[in-house]
Specification:
Number of helices: 14
Distance between the termini: 10 Å
Structural class: mainly alpha
CATH architecture: Up-down Bundle
Radius of gyration: 19 Å
Shape: globular
Number of strands: 0
Helix content: over 70%
Order of helices and strands: HHHHHHHHHHHHHH
Number of domains: 1
CATH class: Mainly Alpha
Largest sheet: none
CATH topology: Na+/H+ antiporter like fold
Strand content: under 5%
Amino acid sequence: MNEIISKVIPIILLIFFGYVIQYKELLKQSTVNEIKKLVINAFLPCVLFITFINMKFKKDYFLIIVIIFILLLVFYFIGAILNKISFISHPLTPFITTGFCFGLLGIPLYETVFGAENLEKISVLGVGHELFIWIVFFNILRIKFKNEKFSLDIIKGIIKSPIILSIIFGITFNIIGGTVWFHNNMFLKGIYTTMKYLANLATPLILIIIGFGLKLKKKYMKQSIKFILIRMLVIFTVGYTFKYLFIDSIIPADDLFNYAYFTFLILPFPFSLPIFVGEYSTKEITELSNNAVVLNTIVSITIYIIFVFLI
């Protein structure tokens, strides 16, 4: 119990520290946005590259990647179907039943509690997720709210994504035996060490950023709560059905993987959702999406902390 408490405390304190920074106005929102951009484009890719290059990659993992991608598609289509129900219908409904804040919250939460040495358990779920987010999720959102058609620029944006590139390079070097090069070659070892330093900054900065963004507006609370209830009902029902029918027959019984899967499903909407919605939609829908993300984040972290104590 003492060990669990010691691992949960940093999550709470770092998020609280971020909230204090916001409350005391020690940093501007624009500054935090720049830090977030740095985390997404530099620190987080380092975390993923190091994880995937050191992962004991199994053939079964490729099946898991495909299954997770399909699962997220199913989540989206269920949201689209639910959107036809009058009291549920809203432009955001199909997008609130799928997609997770994997990199910016899933990795730090799991790493803080279960250690960096076990990150592969959740990272393998993240590959299919990131492919879905960049290939499907944001492009459908853009097409829906901006009436934009699928184009070559969209494909270029996917290919250029630092997160996607870090996963591709990490898996590629792993498969061709390049892990040894990064541990034995003097030059590559220096690069690897530098990436580890940057990766170590990711988790504390992400949790501080989360704390900084904890702002809720009363006028959007009712709809935000409705979104979260719909999301959790769909994701946990369908998510564990998929696990029972498909994933459990591929991945042998493993507590750490089970914890990783729960961590994955409990994650809130992608933090970038309000940013993309704000670019393509109205101010009201943007503020609602931001409110829903913040409330979902608070609920997710609270449930996760309770979960950690229970296990």
